[in-house]
Specification:
By secondary structure, the chain is of the alpha/beta class. The protein folds into two domains: 9-53 and 385-434, Urease, subunit C, domain 1 (Roll); 58-373, TIM Barrel. Helices cover 29% and strands 22% of the residues. The protein has helices at 77-86, 105-118, 141-146, 164-177, 200-205, 212-229, 241-252, 263-267, 289-301, 316-319, 336-345, 352-366; strands spanning 9-16, 23-28, 31-36, 46-57, 59-64, 89-94, 122-125, 153-154, 180-183, 196-197, 209-210, 233-235, 257-261, 306-307, 384-394, 413-423, 426-430, 433-434. The strands form four sheets. It has an eight-stranded mixed β-sheet with strand order 3-2-1-4-15-16-17-18. Strands 8-9-12-13-14 form a five-stranded parallel β-sheet. A three-stranded parallel β-sheet has the order 5-6-7. The protein is globular. The relative contact order is 0.17. Bound molecules: N-carbamoyl-L-aspartate and zinc ion (2 copies). The site of N-carbamoyl-L-aspartate has 11 residues, from loops.
Amino acid sequence: MTVPPTGSVLLGAVRPYGEGEPVDVLVVDGVITEIGTGLTAPRGAERIDGNGGVLLPGFVDLHTHLREPGREDTETIRSGSTAAALGGYTAVFAMANTRPVADNSTVTDNVWRSGREVGLVDVYPVGAVTVGLGGKQLAEMGMMAGGAAGVRMFSDDGKCVDDPLLMRRALEYATGLGVLIAQHAEEPRLTVGAVANEGPWASRLGLAGWPRAAEESIVIRDALLARDAGARVHICHASTEGTVELLRWAKEQGIAITAEVTPHHLLLDDSLLQTYDPINKVNPPLREVRDNEALRRALADGIIDCVATDHAPHAAQEKCCEFAQAKPGMLGLQTALPIVVETLVKPGLLDWRGVARVMSERPAEIVELTDQGRPIEVGEPANLTVVDPDASWVVRGAELASLSDNTPFEAMTMPATVTTTVLRGIVTAHDGQVTR
Ligand SMILES: NC(=O)N[C@@H](CC(=O)O)C(=O)O
Ligand SMILES: [Zn+2]
Ligand SMILES: [Zn+2]
């Protein structure tokens, strides 16, 4: 194991959790050593002016697609890490649906090492649950967990582990290894050919519908399997009001279930499909306004644990085509924080402490990272993000760091921006530029 590099920096005039008067935060060798006013930077330390911005723990994304290996034309570990650092992230979990699939330790260890070499964000590879995402045979989870990457989360994301017996075995095996299974909840028999939320818009537009039950039946099935196995299970990209109610029930029973919601499912609804622009095509599909509202409330009250981007880059030719043929997925890393501000902070559902909870603390806890999502206190690791809460900017896909530009937020005005990201005391991004 290589020792990760650390740095020293003085963050001047920042407001931890957006509270109180601005203070200076001194970081030496990757650790916060002093918080106060009028601090001076020791020799060799960088000095960053925080301009009174909000200081938060660095964001942790449990759901990112980096497309390396296999589709480096659409995203690489470097380009995805760049987007992550600019978006305020200090750790991202890279999904296993690459080519080849990350179903063995050769792939997961390579992703881990490449992430370390780039050094902009901690890239944690997610291992596949089944060989080749085929849903038939369990992958060697133990080998991946025991490798250099120390894989701690497994998912067939993009596909559902739909066989209930196999899912039960995966949960049992994962419990023994102390790792987490994250489920893409989609009963495939109910979504054959489905491209849009089953509802009035899909009917009107002649698009094949994706029923809510396809998601909800797997959510409740997996909650029950986790209960019986004494296992933990994590639900990827929760998208319906019904899923929220099932999560509430399962948590009330004491079942160890956690869930994430994407920024796009918080903000966008299926009325956008009337243009037939596949930029809005995603799995699970954009739902209805009542779902947006239920998901926002669930995130605010903790029924949904965290925000995860499901950053899913696709090439122009995979998006600029007939709706049914287009690939599902949208960019997310650089727009996540502003959308959380728009949908939760501005309406008063979350304060900045709450943003720290859903973007950093809870995701870090779910995957048991000990150096992320930590309190902003002396002696804690300096994985930090500075936000300008008053900034306003217009999204331009072509200007985002991703190699792809499939953002559904094109031309939208965003509130708030990340001004600085710090990984173990090293400034990784500042004023819209990465440092390495
Ligand atoms: N969300 C998507 O629509 N697409 C994801 C896969 C997934 O998250 O299910 C992708 O890999 O492109
Ligand atoms: Zn998925
Ligand atoms: Zn995904």
